[in-house]
Every structure is written in C-alpha cells, then in structure tokens.
Please model this.
Amino acid sequence: MSGKRTAKRQTIIPHCLPHRTNTTYMTNIHIRVATAADCPRLLELVHELAVYERAPEEVTVTLEEFIDAGFGKSPVWKAFVAEENGHIQGFAIFYTRYSTWKGRRLYLEDFIVTEEARGKGIGKLLFDQVIAEARDNQYNGMVWQVLDWNEPAINFYNKYQADLESGWLNASFSKSKTHQLLNKEA
Model:
C-alpha cells in the first residue's frame, strides 16, 4: 500500500449493483474503498464489534492513530465500506500478512455489519469484495479469526466452506508489556 491517499478519492466497486438476498432486494448498497473521512464511522463500528465480542475495554486506538495507520505516510491497512443510502453500515479492514509456509496472504482484521443492517446481504457483498481483492492481487490465500462462540459468524464462513482451524492459541503483548519486558533487568 503505497502512494498518497486523499479523502476525496472514492472507488465504487463495479459489482455492487442491485443484489438479491433471501429477505430483501437491495438497490442502495455500494461497496467502495474507505477514505480517511470514513474513519470516525469505522471506529464507531469497531466499538460496536468490541461490545459484541465482550471486550469493549480492549479498544485503545485513537482516531488520530487509526487515520494515520490507514492514510498516513506509511499506511498499513486498507478497507472496504458498505454504504446503504449514503450511510456506512459495515466494513472489512485488511492488510498483507506474510507466512513463511504460505507466502503473501491477505489478513482480514475486522469484518462487521452493524446490527441494524444485518440480514440484507451486506456482509456477503463485503466478504466477496475482500475475496476478490485476495484473488486479484495474487495473494496465496486469505486468513482471519473468529471467536469459537460466535455461531452466526461461523455459520456465515461455513457457507463459503472456509477451513476453520482448531488447536492454535493467540498470543500477544500490549505496548506497555513490551516496554516493561525490555526494561526489566536480566
């Protein structure tokens, strides 16, 4: 992800024409590349996701850091947003991950459709666009995480015949922990 981005640049993804789902005929859904101007709404949705995942206190990123990480001098993420009648109802944020076993893979960091807009096919449109991004940019696959108790998400991914792995534990350090560990005497 190189080059300078501006808030005025918007790319409408061409396949987002009227979409039929089991429940609703969608004519006002547009999937596009996120801009810096979208970040306040994206962060609202991040907080909604954190509440759903029972970890609202874990969201510590500031709006300024979020914008800089996506649109600053060295952007590290890209996102697609789903708009319904001009209002962002969901997004998928992703970046390149490198696996020594598999090579370049697209990592889907967060994928959310706001609760009020679920069941309209928005998630499918977003997810399909991320899959297309992985395919079109010749990634060697796509990876993401899902909580083992999140049955609606697991059911969604099962419709795509995703390989849901078991046996891996997530490990992490917070910023303060990295400072604490390195400042400790041996």
User: Anything to note?
Assistant: The helical segments are 39-52, 63-71, 122-136, 151-159, 175-183.
